[in-house]
Amino acid sequence: MSSTPYVHRTVLLAEAVAALAIKPDGVYVDCTFGRGGHSRLILSQLGPHGRLIAFDKDLEAIAEAEKLAAEDSRFTIVHNGFETLGQELARLGVAVVDGVLMDLGVSSPQIDDGRRGFSFRFDAPLDMRMDTTRGITAAQWLATAEEDEIKEVIKTYGEERFARKIAAAIVAQRELAPIQTTRELALLVGQNVRTREPGQDPATRTFQAIRIFVNRELDELKAVLPQAARHLAEGGRLAIISFHSLEDRIVKQYLRDASSVEKLPSWVMVRADDMARPPLETVGKPVRASEEEVRENARSRSAIMRIAERTAAPWREGDA
Ligand SMILES: C[S@@+](CC[C@H](N)C(=O)[O-])C[C@H]1O[C@@H](n2cnc3c(N)ncnc32)[C@H](O)[C@@H]1O
Fold this sequence. Notes:
alpha/beta, Rossmann fold, DNA polymerase, domain 1, 2 domains, 8-stranded mixed beta sheet, 13 helices, about 15% strand, binds S-adenosylmethionine
């Protein structure tokens, strides 16, 4: 049961937990608890001495997780951004873990609860923070940011062709009155996006961009990846589910860098064991949702999961 009426349908549930290759006595981290779909399946595969540590920034996710923690002593919830992974593991006295899962982005309850201000489908205060206890809201940012910064955010994180026009309209509008609601922003964007993509609201890209910016989603992803790799035990698994190309590009590039040997000019003769060994090895091909899952849960259509395993190479400062 959830603390709100909104439900999250877990994406790639069996696939992600299988990717972690759970050892009954292992220690695992779920960086994105949400409503606990992945966490519950991990706990069901752990024995009495296993342990699961989960993170979330969202107070409703935390309330749900606290109920689970009260019932199951193997489970610990941390109300913090996952970019604090290393620091939180140190606080909990955990040096190495056997697997780390990330199911990125927003949960369905965050989008479906109109009051959170994530969606142009509802009229609500323009908030968009996953963590409503800190940071600035989308409305506060739009009220003060330079036009150029607004344009860059919408262009980069929304891949929106009309970013310049939208940013200019936002700045012109706020001279008259601050933009305070999702509806006000959606209307303004709609008036400034000329070509419409079939089946997509003209505000989709701008809302995605502002959400990514307000929650520092890509910066936090870049910050957590090396911490996760560093804390994995030999043979430990990393499984990351992304929902858009900007996230997946960061994950793909990180895994490529962390799993390739140092490049030496081809004429240099070296013994294999002289070569610097990479800390990670990718496992299999990227995993996508089955047709059946996509039919039942449209959100899974864009999901892509990448998996990696920690090698026996000792972690060296400067490793990816
Ligand atoms: C897609 S949902 C996860 C759903 C979960 N796997 C489930 O099955 O219920 C993503 C969750 O991660 C949280 N989240 C996103 N970025 C985060 C970050 N940097 N640190 C902590 N939590 C984050 C969001 O608040 C949201 O609850």
